[in-house]
Amino acid sequence: MFNQLGLIGCGLMGGSFALALKKAGLVKRVVGYSKSPSTVEKARRLGVIDVMAESALLAVSGSDIVLIAVPVAASEGTFKAIRHLVDKNVLFMDVGSTKRDVVDAARRVLKERIPSFVPAHPIAGREVAGIEYADATLYQGRKVILTPLEQTDPVLVQKATDVWAAIGCQVLKMSPENHDAAFAAVSHLPHLLAFAYVNAMTAQPDGREYLSLAGPGFRDFTRIAASDPTVWRDILLSNREEVLRQSEAFRAALEQMERQMRDWSGQSLQELIQTASDARSLWSQQGSLKGTGR
Predict the structure, then answer these.
(1) CA–CA separation, 136 and 8 (whole Å)
(2) pLDDT by residue for the chain (294 residues), tens digit each?
(3) Can you tell me the distance from the alpha carbon of 115 to that of 91, in angstroms, rounded to the nearest whole number?
(4) How many other CB atoms are there within 10 angstroms of residue 135's CB atom?
(5) Global confidence as pTM
(6) What angle do CA 135, 141, 144 make, to 5 degrees?
(7) φ, ψ dihedrals at 77, nearest 5°
């Protein structure tokens, strides 16, 4: 049981974490801060937080667990705002979808206080943003990736593991570098492709007419194109090297299929489609669908 959660960033991810802790009986009160006072007020009115803080530092004050749920580009500024209250006995976590940039920012700012920081990435999310969509069940049955550093306090790593497990997550551990490489492939590139595809569609003279004919396939493929633009701008830029590497691999695979089409190589094209179909079916059978998310 924690006495106080300091929540920095009262949005979908942070709000859902606060509600999940409350539902599980893991926290006595939640003190929340966001840059927008109206957002903090809405979070209090909805019962997500109990006390409104006027600054990130005041949200940390008196807290024995802190969640930083801000866009990844705002991580360094947040660390600077709170570093004087980063205590070795307090668990600090984030929910950023990229880890190397967040870890580098923590190293620059927190310095000797970095053992208190346990970088985390819950694989959960929705195509809507905002505190009004916070849900105590958002993390149930999902994976969360912890990317602790060599300096990270093992006691706090275990505490982070226990907290996420208690709200229904399967906890995995990776290095920040391996995390970013993996999620460039399975999350960041798919978002990039969805954004580009929808833009390509709507930029055509008859694009709106085509959209009126779209069915379930279009809906499923483009679902993530409705994701928060600010969040995904930051993610794609912060992990650009790995995403561009995956984009090159995708382009090569696409060009291979295009060649088979141009050459009327039906058998070769079918084999490529079959390979993809088999890989997708195997992934589904292994139960990975349960852990999908942002």
Answers:
(1) 17
(2) 899 999 999 999 999 999 999 999 999 999 999 999 999 999 999 999 999 999 999 999 999 999 999 999 999 999 999 999 999 999 999 999 999 999 999 999 999 999 999 999 999 988 778 999 999 999 999 999 999 999 999 999 999 999 999 999 999 999 999 999 999 999 999 999 999 999 999 999 999 999 999 999 999 999 999 988 988 999 999 999 999 999 999 999 999 999 999 999 999 999 999 999 999 999 988 865 444 445
(3) 9
(4) 14
(5) 0.88
(6) 90
(7) -60, -35
Burial category of 287 from C-beta neighbours within 10 Å (exposed 0-12, middle 13-18, buried 19 and up) = exposed
Residues 6+ apart with CB under 8 A from 148: 118, 119, 157, 173
H runs (alpha helix) in 83-228: 100-110, 154-166, 176-183, 189-203, 207-212, 216-222
Whether the Cβ atoms of residue 147 and residue 106 lie closer than 8 Å to each other: no
Helices (H), 46-137: 56-60, 75-82, 100-110
- Rounded CA-CA distance 14/8 in Å is 8
CA atoms within 13 A on the CB side of 2: 28
Please name the amino acid found at residue 62.
G
94 beta partners: 68
CA distance 251 to 253: 5
Task: Characterise 270 by phi-psi region: left (phi > 0), alpha (psi -120 to 50), beta (else).
Answer: alpha
HSE-up (13 A, CA, CB side) for residue 149: 21
**Token representation of residue 184:** 């460039």
